[in-house]
Amino acid sequence: MDIESLRNYCLSKPAVEETFPFGPETLVYKVGGKIFLICSLDSEEFRFNVKCDPEKAIELRERYDCVQPGYHMNKKHWNTIVVDGTVSNSMLKEWINDSYDLIVESLPAKTREKIKGKK
């Protein structure tokens, strides 16, 4: 996965907004106004942050070297994924999906149903 395939994948999801609220070097994807993925564009290595269930976050960190506590994020709820080729693109997409779904489920019912209706 590279930055363009990450971008295309995120934008293919219903109701996703691409923003740069932290400046031109930090790409942010939101759904319902809430962040589900952050990607630094000026990092030496390609990596991104995704939200994760706290128990699963710990499990993933223990199982995969490329999964680290969320850089500059709440480490209980966020993981940083280093895209180093050690996990498949389908696994990366699964982690993005999990983050997106966690955010959608946290939205008010009316907003959530409106987004789900777009799927």
UniProtKB/TrEMBL annotation:
Name this polypeptide is given: MmcQ/YjbR family DNA-binding protein
InterPro entries, per the entry: YjbR (IPR007351), YjbR-like_sf (IPR038056), YjbR/MT2646/Rv2570-like (IPR058532)
Pfam families found in the cross-reference section: YjbR
Keywords for this protein: DNA-binding
Coiled coil: none
TM stretches of this protein: none
Originating species: Niastella caeni
GO MF, one annotated term: DNA binding
